[in-house]
Amino acid sequence: MHGRDSADIPTPGLLHAKAWAEAYELIDLQLSPLGLKAIEALSPGSGDVVLDIGCGTGQTLLQLAERVGTDGRVIGVDVAPLLIEIAKRRAEPLSQVRLIRADAQSLNLPAESADAVFSRFGVMNFADPVAAFANFRRILRPSGALAFTCWRSLRENELDCLPLSAVGLQPADESPFSFADPGQTRRILEAAGFRDIAIRPHDEKVSSGDLDAMMSVLLKVGPLGKIVRENPALRMTVEPRLRAALANLGDPSRVELLASVWIVTARAGATTR
After folding, report:
1. Cα separation of 141 and 137, whole Å?
2. Cβ(36)–Cβ(47) under 8 Å?
């Protein structure tokens, strides 16, 4: 374990981590194509050292490890012990993967020790985003690169707004959309010392599979999932309304909803000494 002692690390919502752990295979089906867009933009090569921020249950660790090969290293960082344990099991055969339970904002890795920093929806909840990205830049080599996927606005994401509107609820927490404004994201990265910043929109229909699979995911995670987790009595009312809305989309064997994200890339540039 690197960074702070585990006793000092803030533990995320247990309900959220439990829900994610229960449905991670279905969630991976939904989010994988969105994360792969950022991996393609990052273009890690054989022998690279890549830091995966908010690695969760580890799908992105496996995807990155395939690209860096056995001569490279992938360092996964997440604050949730339950998710880290799943990631450890999944990455066990891969000698190039290392996992750290830590608060990524204050991650204590050596300066100029990584070639790339990557994240799939793992950078939107920092208390001080400028400090967090400045720390990532410190860890990057001067030639290093950053790439991450983050959500655009709630209203642009059918994946989140359709379930909410179908059941007549408003989001209880919009922090997942804290990087929706590209101008604000650019200002954060510039303040952290990054250069050559590019913020590109990407839209893609995503799915966890059939109607039942999408129901399972949407009632566990995302804006509607958060409301249902915290107010379980609502499930009886919410579930039939959501099922009817998804069934109206067409083919129940594969239910797809539009996801709208930013693919953000930047370069570290020379380190100030």
Report:
1. 8
2. no
What is the C-alpha separation between 260 and 273, in angstroms, rounded? 39
Q: Domains of the chain (ranges plus CATH)? A: 6-267 (3.40.50.150)
Phi, psi of 137, deg, nearest 5: -65, -35
Upper half-sphere CA count for residue 46 (Cβ side, 13 Å): 3
Count helices and strands in the chain by DSSP H and E runs: 9, 7
Strands 140-151 and 114-120: parallel
CB 225 within 8 A of CB 164: no
- Written as six digits, the tokens of 18 are 């439990």
Question: Per residue in 30-79, pLDDT tens?
Answer: 999 999 999 999 999 999 999 999 999 999 999 999 999 999 999 999 99
**What is the Cα Rg of the chain in Å?**
18
Assigned token pair, 218? 């949407």
Closest CA to 122 of 143, 154, 145, 146: 146
Distance, first Cα to last Cα, the chain: 28
Question: How many C-beta atoms surround the C-beta of residue 260 within 10 A?
Answer: 20
- Give the tens place of pLDDT for each residue, 147-191: 999 999 999 999 999 999 999 999 878 889 999 999 999 999 999
pLDDT for 207 beyond 50: yes
